[in-house]
Specification:
This protein is mostly helical and 79 residues long. It has one domain (2-73). 76% of the residues lie in helices and 0% in strands. The chain has helices at residues 2-25, 29-45, 55-73. Helix 1 packs antiparallel against helix 2 (29-45), helix 1 (2-25) packs parallel to helix 3 (55-73) and helix 2 (29-45) runs antiparallel to helix 3 (55-73). The model has no long low-confidence stretch (mean pLDDT 79).
């Protein structure tokens, strides 16, 4: 299961890289969030209703989501 989550998060990272130019085009935060939820998060969470996650795996998904949101909005860790 851990290997599957790693692969899924890597797919989410590659999707974020592909849509990065789209984020640069739209300066409206609401549009960026919609793009994130409908394109990137969908690809990461596809089939998740059948997962049995441990606390550690759930934390990895939250870390991924926070990292993606910081990437979308151009925030640094110390901001």
């Amino acid at each position: 299961m851990v290997e599957k989550i790693k692969n899924i998060l890597n797919a989410g990272m590659s999707a974020t890289i592909r849509f990065k130019t789209l984020f640069l085009l739209f300066h409206n935060q609401n549009v960026r969030i919609k793009i994130y939820r409908n394109m990137i998060l969908f690809s990461v969470l596809y089939g998740c209703e059948t997962w049995c996650l441990t606390i550690r795996e759930g934390r990895r998904l939250r870390v991924f989501e926070n990292r993606m949101l910081r990437e979308i909005f151009g925030l640094k860790r110390e901001d």
